Amino acid sequence: MMQWLTEDALLVCDHGGRVNNKLSQQLVEIAGRRVMVAIDPEGRSISGCPNADVLMGMRPCVTTLPVKTGYSDFIAIAGHPVCLSTVRGLTDGTPPGTVDYSVKRPGQVLVEAGS
After folding, report:
1. What is the pTM of this model?
2. Average pLDDT score, the chain
């Protein structure tokens, strides 16, 4: 089963940098925490990515790019699909087009979506 994401969700880049959540809706909460919807994970800053080696031309992940998978096909809030624990997308880190961000913790365990 896939859990819905809340503002307490932990999303990280492949290197371990943390995505800084910012939510757009205030209508639905789980245990007092707002639910994430499309496009909340996109265009967010990433802090603490250790992938930085100037001599090798390595750039740390700084920003999330569009989500590739993980938005609900069935449930939406105010027309925006709910984010599920399967959210995954690319970052702007190096090598380009190969570094993903994904969910490490959904932020809650009460509400699940069927497969």
Report:
1. 0.94
2. 95
